[in-house]
Structures are given as structure tokens and as C-alpha cells.
Amino acid sequence: MSDWKTKDEDLSERIDALSRGSTNGSEIKRYEFVTFHQSYGYEEFVEGLRPISEDGVIRYEVVPGTFLRVCRRAQLDPMNHYAVFIDEINRGNISRIFGELITLVEGDKRVRYDNEGKRLLGDTGIEVTLPYSGALFGVPTNVHIIGTMNTADRSIALLDMALRRRFDFEEVVPDPDIIKGSDGRGWIETDDGEPLQLPELLRTINKRINYYLGRDLMIGHACLTKVRSMQDLHVAFAKKIIPLLQEYFYADWEKIRLILGDHPEQRKHYPDKVRAALDGVEDKDYHFIISKKLAHSNVFGFGSSDQEDPWEYQVNPALFEGRLSPWAYRKIYSL
């Protein structure tokens, strides 16, 4: 048995794959996925020191981070594309995480390598010396960095300008037409025999959110993409959409009612078809938000004229119990 061993694990992985006949990189993982956060740093992303305990003795070893691992694989396989997917890219401390890579990720600073991982003759890309390992490092031309960020999250800063100018940006807005429903066209069946339009439902809700809060806070289509039945829809509204509206509008229940078509003024403008369908139906069967006026005498045991009695609002229990009428949803996009 040979006493020699390959020190570079990525090179060993590549050699093993090639010896098995893999020439397209299909057996080598060509991507990594990470999520940035405030405590995420250069040591996790590029390289850092990790304590290793052997026979009671602690020593420190240089360990490659996510980005460096992908780049090493890509360097040995220039004919295939590699990628790093970064979720919540604007949540991390960009300067701390990227370090000197902030320059190397630019297109004209990338390095071209041959199949042996050697730099091509005449290449004008930039390589730097890594601080822990002392190795030369450049970002291969076949490595892609894809970051995602949610502009609705106002609790975090905007993306670092130094990194922003090095990326192309593409806005991904809610697309109601992606919602397939139960028939593949965005409809779901209901107990009363009249299908319900999911794309139009989301489109109307977002139009109203946009009016009050702007396009950044519109609800994504993912909330409804898995809805195949009325029960699924009840769950989506009870556990996703209405809690999100409560977060958006805080204690302003009147605006939430407007978004959901529950406001008393909206009832005056329901189309004739909606009015006819709701004729004789109790409010609790087709309203998402129900309210009642609190009486001072009922709360404190005596009446008072010092202030007007307040209204109490709550999400209709019928929603959680799956008893809400399909017209609770239809009336939203009927206005």
C-alpha cells in the first residue's frame, strides 16, 4: 500500500470522480448554500482557524470556508459552472465576511485556470495571499455568486454599497399567475359549486397593500402556491396572510378590514351578485375580522361618560374552524 496521500481533499474528490468516469461534474457538488447573519464572519466564508484536540493536546488548523471550498473545486474543473447561494445577503456584515474578496469577485479581477488548476498563461486576473493559510487565491471565472434579500425587512440595513456595485440586481415580484390551485389554472373547488380564483384573490390583496405600504411589502405568491382546497386556503389565511397583515398594520384593524373587504363602507359597494349571495348570511360566516363594542359598565361594573366605549376586534373563529364561507374570499376581489 502506498504511503502517499492527497493533501488537497477537493483534488482527491475530483480525481476519484474522473477515475469512475464522471466528466461533467455530476458527482461533485458544484454549489454551496449559506445564510448570512450578524455573527457570520470571514472565518466561516473564506477560511479560519479551528481548534483540533489530539491526545489531550490542542492545536489549531486552517479550515477552508464555504466560498473557498467552492472556488477550489471550480479551479480544478474550469469547464463547469459552480455557484454559491447566499440567503439574506444583507443581514451579514459584508466587509467582515468578504474581506479582500470584495475586490476579487469583480468580473475583470477573476482568474482563468486550466484543468490542472494552474493559472493560464497571460491571464490578467488577481490573486491574493490568504491571511491564515498563506496560499495564493483567486476567484475562478466559472464561480457564480447568487444572493437573495428581502426588501420588506426594515429591521436591517440596505446592502453594503461596495458590494452592491459589484452585483447585478433583479427584482422578483409576486406573480399570482404561478398559483395553480386544484385545476392548474388557479381555481379551487368550493362547497357551493362555484370555483374560487386564487390569482385574483392575491392580486387584489396586494393592490391594496401597495396603496398603503408600497410594493416592497406585497405578499408573495408562495403563500398560496400549495393551496388545493378550501381547507388549505383557510389555513393559509389563518396562519400566514392575516398574521402578516397584523404585523404590517399593528393595531389598525380598520385597515386590515379594508384589505380583506370586511369594512362597513365596502359592504355598501358589493356587486349585486355578492349582495344576493350574502343575503340572509350572518356576518360571522363571511367576515375575517369581527368586532364588538365594549361597554364600560360590563367591564368595570358601572357606566361612565368620560370616554367613548372602544371597539374590540378579533380574527373570526370560523376561519380557524374551517367554517368560513367561500364568499368571504370572493368578496375581496369582487369590489
Largest sheet: 3 strands, parallel
For the secondary structure, the number of strands is 11
Helix content: 25-40%
Uncertain runs with pLDDT below 50, 5 residues or more? 1-8, 18-23
What is the H-and-E element order?
Answer: HEHEEHEHHEEEHEEHHHHHEHEHH
Write down the overall mean pLDDT.
Answer: 87
Give the number of domains. 2
Q: Strand fraction band?
A: 5-15%
Structure keywords:
single chain; 335 residues; alpha/beta; Rossmann fold; 2 domains; 3-stranded parallel beta sheet; disordered N terminus
What does this structure look like?
With 335 residues, this protein is an alpha/beta fold. It folds into two domains: 156 residues, Rossmann fold (3-Layer(aba) Sandwich), CATH 3.40.50; 159 residues, no CATH class. It contains 14 helices and eleven strands. The protein has a three-stranded parallel β-sheet with strand order 1-4-7, with helices on one face. The chain has a two-stranded antiparallel sheet with strand order 2-3. Strands 5-6 form a two-stranded antiparallel ribbon. Strand 8 and strand 9 form a beta hairpin. Helix 7 packs across helix 14. The longest helix is centred in the last third of the chain and has 20 residues. The protein starts with 8 loop residues before the first helix and ends with a helix. The N terminus is likely disordered.
